[in-house]
Automatic annotation (TrEMBL):
Keywords: Metal-binding, Repeat, WD repeat, Zinc, Zinc-finger. It comes from the Eukaryota. This is Uncharacterized protein LOC104773412. PANTHER family: PTHR44489, WD REPEAT DOMAIN 86 (PTHR44489:SF11). It holds the Pfam family WD40. It comes from Camelina sativa (False flax). Residues 6-51 form the RING-type domain. Residues 114-451 form the Protein kinase domain.
Length: 813
C-alpha cells in the first residue's frame, strides 16, 4: 500500500521533511504546506480539506500536534480519506428565468450605454415622432458631443403584467436576445469597428419613454459634401477627399463590412476637413434604398423591366445614392421582383464598393450637372425596344456608362482618370480595379509618390469577421420607417407572436412569460413584521405584536400561532437538526424554543432569559451552529453562546462597540455584524476571535444592519444603502444599491435581494469567479411599505413589511 500523503503537496509523510500536523478540525496536512498556505488574516488559516477557518498558535504550524498515529501506522492509515468539501448546492430554483447565457451578457453588457447617457434633441411634444423616427440627433451628456441615433429595435414600454420591474440593462438584454442571430451579428460587427476614417459608434441606448433601442454614433458637424461641389476647380482638395473615402472603405473591408452603396450624406468632415465615412448614415442610406425599391415594386405583379428599373435608378439618383449593379440586383431578388438570369449574391464582394466610389467622385467633379445627365440618360433608354431579361439592364447601364465618357469635360490632370473610372463602372465585378488601385490613381494626381509601388496595398483584403454587405444587411431591412407597418409595430401595438417581415418585434420582454413574477398576500399580524424563517415545511414570521405565525408553504395559508413572548419578537430562526425547532428572541431578552413537528404545540419546549443591564435593548439577532449552540446578538454589544438542550450560557464574546445587529454562520465561522460598522469572525470550536472586517476605514462608521451568507459568499448591508460582498473572506465588491437604509438582505446562489426604507425590493444577480465579481441589477419590486425582512426559498421570495403584511413573490405563468 502507498504511504499516506499530504493533501496539498501530495508528498508522503516521513516525520522529518514532511511532518503531519493535526488541525483543530481533525484533518492533517504537512507542516511546510501549512506554513506556506496564504493567510488572508493574521494568525489564521483555512483547512485545505474542509476550508474551516481557525486560529493558529502564535508559534505557527510547528506548535500544532503531530499525527503520531499516522506516522506509526503507515499501511493502515493510507485508507483514511479526507472529508470532502461539502456542497449543499443542488440545483437551485431560479427566481427569474432568463433566456440568455452568461457569455451573451458578458458580450453585450459593455455595449449598452447607461440609461441617462444620451439626451435626445427633440422636445417632449414630439414623442409620437420620436417613437416612429428611424434616425434622430442627440447629445452625450458626459462631454456634450453630438451623436446620431439610429433605431434598431423596439421593446415594450412597461412590463405591467409582472410585479418585477426589470432594470434598464435587463430590458435591453431582452430586446437584444429577441433579435435574430443575423441581426445581432451585424450589430456586433458595427459596434466593434474602430478604424481610421470611419465615424465612431459608441454603443446602444434604450429610450425608455418611447420603447426604442438606438445605435448611437458620432455625428460630425463639419462642412457638407454637397457644398464642396461648388469648388470643383480645386482638384487637389477633391483628390484628397477621394483618397480618404477610399481609405475608409478599405478599413471597413478589414472588418468584413462591404458598404454596397454610398450617398453624399455618408461622407462627413471633422474640424480639420478630413473626410470620414459615417456608419450611421451608411445604414440609413441602405434603408432609404430598401424603401425606394419597396415603393416602386409594391404594386408590381411581374418581374422588373427597363421602365421600372429606370424609376428605381432615378429615385436613387435624386437622393444622391449610388449603388453597384450587383447589389441592386440582389435587393430586387430579395423583393422577388428580379428579372430572369440575374446575378447571384456570390457576385457581391469587396469590388462592389468601387462602383459607388467612382460615381461619388464624378459627383464631386461635375456637381448637379452629373446627376441631371445621369437621369437624362436613364430617360433616353428605349424600353419598348428591349426584351425582358438581363439584356434590359445591360442596355440601361450601357447608356449610363457611355455618359461617363467625358474626356472633353475633364481638364488637366483628370484626363488620366477617365480609363480607370470607366473600368470602375464595369458590370462585371471581376473586371473592375480594386479600391487600392483607385486610391493610387487619385494619389498620383496630387503628389509624386516616394515609392512607385507599395507592396502592402497589393495584399488581398481579409476581413476579421465573416463578410457581409451593409446594403443587404438585416440592419438596413430591420425598420421600414415610412410604411404603415411601422406604425402598427410602434410600442404597445404588438403584444405577442412573431413579427412579420419588415416589422420590429417588440415583444421581447413578453417572451420571458415563464419568468414573470406574481405575488400573494399573507395577513395575520397586528404590528410590523420583524423576521422570517423557512423550515420543516413551514414559513415562520415574527412581529412587534409578540407572536410567531406559522404558514403553510403549499398554499401560504395560516396554520398556527406561537404565543408566549412578553415583549416584541426581534429575531427568528429555524433549526433542522435532530429535532425540528423554531427559536425566537424578544426585546426583553427572552429566548423561546418551539417544536415544529406536527401537530404544533401551543407552549414552547423551553425558554430562558438573558440578564439585563442599563445598556440592554434586547436580542437583535440569532444564529445556530452544528455544535449545538444558539448564538444571540444583543444590545449590550456582546454575543452569547447558549446550549440548545438546556439553555445554559456557554460563553460570552465581547469586542463590538455597539449593538450586535446580525449574525450568520458560514463554513465553520460565526460572523457578527454591528452598528459599529465592523464584522467580527469567531471560531465555532473555541469561540475565539479570528479577525475583524471593516476597520480599514477609521473615522467612517456605517452601521451594519443585516448579513446574509450562501456557500462561500457573505453579503453585508449598511445603513447608508451600501452592500459589501466577500468570497472566502476576500472583499470582492462594494456598491450602493439603495438610497436609504437596507434593513434586510437574502442571498441564494446567484440571487441577491435587498429591501429597506425605500420600500423597494431590489433583485441583483451575482456572477464572476475567484478573481472578479459582478453584481448586476436585474430589476425591482415596488412595495407598499418599509421592507423589514426577506427570506428566499426554492424560487420563492418572502417579504415582511412594516404595514403588518407578508408577501410571497414567485415565478408563474
Amino acid at each position: 500500500m502507498e504511504p499516506p500523503e499530504c493533501p496539498v503537496c501530495l508528498q508522503s509523510y516521513d516525520g522529518v521533511s514532511s511532518v503531519p500536523r493535526v488541525l483543530s478540525c481533525g484533518h492533517t496536512a504537512c507542516e511546510e504546506c501549512l506554513t506556506n498556505l496564504p493567510k488572508k488574516f493574521p494568525n489564521t488559516i483555512r483547512c485545505p480539506a474542509c476550508t474551516v477557518l481557525f486560529k493558529l498558535p502564535p508559534q505557527g504550524p510547528s506548535a500544532l500536534p503531530k499525527n503520531i498515529d499516522l506516522l506509526r501506522l503507515f499501511p493502515s492509515v493510507s485508507q483514511i480519506k479526507l472529508e470532502p468539501r461539502r456542497n449543499c448546492k443542488n440545483n437551485p430554483v431560479e427566481f427569474v428565468v432568463r433566456s440568455w447565457s452568461d457569455d451573451f451578457y458578458a458580450t453585450w453588457k459593455d455595449r449598452i450605454l447607461v440609461h441617462d447617457a444620451v439626451s435626445v434633441e427633440n422636445g417632449e411634444s414630439e414623442v409620437t415622432d420620436l417613437a416612429l423616427s428611424s434616425c434622430l440627433c442627440g447629445t452625450l451628456k458626459d462631454d456634450e458631443s453630438k451623436v446620431s441615433l439610429l433605431r434598431v429595435a423596439s421593446f415594450e414600454l412597461d412590463d405591467c403584467d409582472s410585479f418585477l420591474k426589470y432594470s434598464y440593462v435587463q430590458r435591453m438584454m431582452s430586446c437584444l436576445w429577441g433579435m435574430r442571430e443575423e441581426e445581432r451579428y451585424e450589430l456586433d460587427a458595427i459596434v466593434s469597428i474602430k478604424q481610421r476614417g470611419v465615424s465612431k459608434v459608441f454603443g446602444l441606448w434604450g429610450d425608455l419613454k418611447n420603447g426604442v433601442l438606438y445605435l448611437v454614433g458620432e455625428k460630425l458637424t463639419g462642412e457638407e459634401l454637397d457644398n464642396l461641389t461648388e469648388d470643383a476647380d480645386d482638384t487637389s482638395r477633391l483628390a484628397m477627399f477621394g483618397m480618404q473615402i477610399c481609405e475608409a472603405l478599405i478599413n471597413l473591408h478589414k472588418e468584413g463590412v462591404i458598404s454596397g452603396c454610398l450617398s453624399v450624406s455618408c461622407v462627413k468632415f471633422d474640424e480639420f476637413e478630413n473626410a470620414y465615412v459615417d456608419l450611421i448614415e451608411l445604414i440609413e442610406t441602405g434603408r432609404n434604398v430598401y424603401q425606394i425599391i419597396a415603393e416602386e415594386t409594391r404594386s408590381l405583379r411581374k418581374p422588373v423591366g427597363v421602365s421600372e428599373m429606370g424609376l428605381i435608378l432615378i429615385g436613387l439618383l435624386q437622393k444622391g445614392i449610388f449603388m453597384s449593379s450587383e447589389v441592386l440586383f440582389e435587393l430586387l431578388k430579395e423583393q422577388k421582383m428580379l428579372i430572369k438570369n440575374a446575378s447571384s449574391k456570390s457576385l457581391v464582394s469587396y469590388s462592389s464598393d468601387v462602383w459607388p466610389v467612382c460615381f461619388l467622385l464624378l459627383k464631386l467633379l461635375l456637381g448637379k450637372r452629373f446627376t441631371e445627365e445621369l437621369i437624362g440618360s436613364v430617360h433616353c433608354v428605349d424600353a419598348k425596344g428591349c426584351e425582358e431579361g438581363l439584356e434590359d439592364l445591360l442596355v440601361l447601364y450601357t447608356g449610363i456608362m457611355e455618359k461617363l465618357c467625358l474626356e472633353s469635360e475633364l481638364q488637366g490632370k483628370f484626363k488620366f482618370m477617365v480609363e480607370v473610372l470607366r473600368q470602375c463602372c464595369c458590370l462585371d465585378p471581376q473586371g473592375r480595379p480594386v479600391l487600392t488601385d483607385l486610391w493610387k490613381c487619385i494619389r498620383d494626381l496630387v503628389m509624386n509618390p516616394r515609392f512607385n509601388s507599395l507592396s502592402g496595398l497589393h495584399k488581398t483584403v481579409s476581413g476579421k469577421r465573416k463578410e457581409f454587405c451593409l446594403s443587404l444587411s438585416e440592419l438596413c431591412h430591420l425598420v421600414d420607417v415610412k410604411s404603415k407597418e411601422l406604425e402598427e409595430a410602434s410600442p404597445g401595438a404588438q403584444t405577442g407572436g412573431e413579427a412579420e417581415e419588415g416589422k420590429v418585434d417588440i415583444d421581447f420582454v413578453g417572451r420571458l412569460s415563464e419568468g414573470k413574477v406574481k405575488s400573494k398576500d399573507m395577513r395575520g399580524h397586528q404590528d410590523s413584521v420583524t423576521a422570517l424563517a423557512v423550515g420543516g415545511g413551514f414559513l415562520f414570521s415574527s412581529s412587534y405584536d409578540k407572536t410567531i405565525l406559522v404558514w403553510s408553504l403549499k398554499d401560504f395559508s395560516h396554520v398556527h400561532t406561537f404565543k408566549g413572548h412578553q415583549d416584541k419578537v426581534m429575531a427568528l430562526m429555524h433549526i433542522d437538526g435532530a429535532e425540528l425547532v423554531c427559536v425566537s428572541g424578544d426585546g426583553g431578552g427572552g429566548i423561546f424554543v418551539w417544536s415544529t413537528s406536527f401537530p404544533l404545540e401551543d407552549q414552547p419546549l423551553r425558554k430562558w432569559y438573558e440578564p439585563k443591564d442599563w445598556r440592554y435593548t434586547g436580542i437583535h439577532a440569532l444564529a445556530y451552529s452544528e455544535y449545538g449552540y444558539v448564538y444571540s446578538g444583543s444590545g449590550d454589544n456582546t454575543i452569547k453562546a447558549w446550549s440548545l438542550q438546556d439553555g445554559s450560557l456557554v460563553c460570552t464574546m465581547s469586542g463590538h462597540k455597539s449593538v450586535v445587529s446580525t449574525l450568520v454562520v458560514l463554513n465553520g465561522v460565526l460572523y457578527s455584524g454591528s452598528w459599529d460598522g465592523t464584522i467580527r469572525l469567531w471560531s465555532l470550536s473555541d469561540h475565539s476571535l479570528l479577525t475583524v472586517l471593516g476597520e480599514e476605514t477609521p473615522g467612517i462608521v456605517r452601521s451594519i444592519l443585516s448579513l446574509a451568507a450562501d456557500d462561500q459568499t457573505l453579503v453585508a448591508a449598511y445603513q447608508n444603502g451600501d452592500i459589501q460582498i466577500w468570497r472566502d473572506d476576500t472583499l470582492m465588491k462594494c456598491t450602493k444599491i439603495q438610497s436609504g437604509a437596507i434593513l434586510s438582505i437574502a442571498v441564494n446562489g446567484k440571487w441577491l435581494f435587498t429591501g429597506g426604507w425605500d420600500k423597494t425590493i431590489n433583485v441583483q444577480e451575482l456572477s464572476g469567479d475567484e478573481i472578479s465579481l459582478d453584481c448586476t441589477h436585474v430589476g425591482s419590486i415596488p412595495g407598499s411599505s418599509v421592507i423589514t425582512s426577506l427570506s428566499y426559498w426554492e424560487g420563492k421570495l418572502f417579504v415582511g413589511f412594516a404595514d403588518k403584511t407578508i408577501k410571497v413573490y414567485y415565478c408563474g405563468c
